[in-house]
Design goal:
348 residues; alpha/beta; Aspartate Aminotransferase, domain 2; 17% strand; binds 4'-deoxy-4'-aminopyridoxal-5'-phosphate
Length: 348
Amino acid sequence: MTAAKAEWRDLTPYRPTTRICRVNLGDNTNLFGMPPSAERVLREAGVDSVARYPESYAPGLKRAVATYAGVAPENVTTGCGSDDVIDSVLRALSAPGEAVAFSDPTFVMVPVFARVNGLRPAPVPLRADCSLDVTGLLATGARVIYVCAPNNPTGTAVSRASLEALVAQAPGVVLIDEAYAEFSSSGGFLDLARSCHNVLVTRTMSKAFGLAGMRVGWAVGSAELVAEVEKARGPYKHAAMAEAMSIAALSEDVPWMRAQAETAIANRERFREALQGMGLRALDSDANFLLVPLRGAMRVAERMRDMGVNVRAFQGLAGLGDALRVSVGPWPLLEEALAALREALPCE
Ligand code: PMP
């Protein structure tokens, strides 16, 4: 007799190949550090903030997000990272056995969250130019269609026209994951969450806002959708400290966040040119990372780790093959990555 569910036997915990490295360009976090206001809150926190529960359903954090996103607090739900928000959305808005549609490749946790909630992953290949296959996504009949914009791991932008066509024809909800929106030239799609009853947009404090260790994410949508998601969420999803630091960052450090994002974008394009000089072609990126299709990427990443530089390698991505994904940050780190990559590339 085993305690394992037969349906889960092949599921394994998320453990990207990584090693503690001097330079970590593997997880697309803010390599410039944390917002000064959040650091102040952390340093000034007293022991009292630890012994009691925070307020249930994080009303203070919702107010700060609402101001940032230009909505009312009833249009906001929050969670333990946007991972948790996505998980709650799938659980809240689909019945067991239903399909969840998403492009392939996209954020690797989406099919996992679908399966652990008793749902059926319905991957639809990205088109050759990495754009959305709107017809293919709609053809799944899924009541929740997930779109990552900009997409991880490709970094590619999602066009407004394709998203609007999808939203207009979707039989249910379009869940737009904007973990990287602050780096996007489009500025994101929060306006769709404000104006369309069937759109939820998730964002995170983990990337541009530099608070990945605090595990805070949020979603914006109609009050009706948000109320459904909150039923799946549970009352106490944040550590009080994480909530207080996120409120400070959203209220005081948006200019800090924008300045770091601008530098990351400039460095991304400089890094792309340097890669080109090495004969490598990164995909166009609207995020804080570049995806570089490269045969044998797993071996190259392993050699780079030996030299103290961690990047993320993918094997056999749909339509793209093997690839390295490199987060962008301060230029000196990228210089180290370039030097390690140059050494690690196989001589042809
Ligand atoms: N969505 C995407 C596209 C991501 O890349 C990530 C982080 N890897 C997440 C969501 C989850 O981030 P978090 O839970 O830290 O908010």
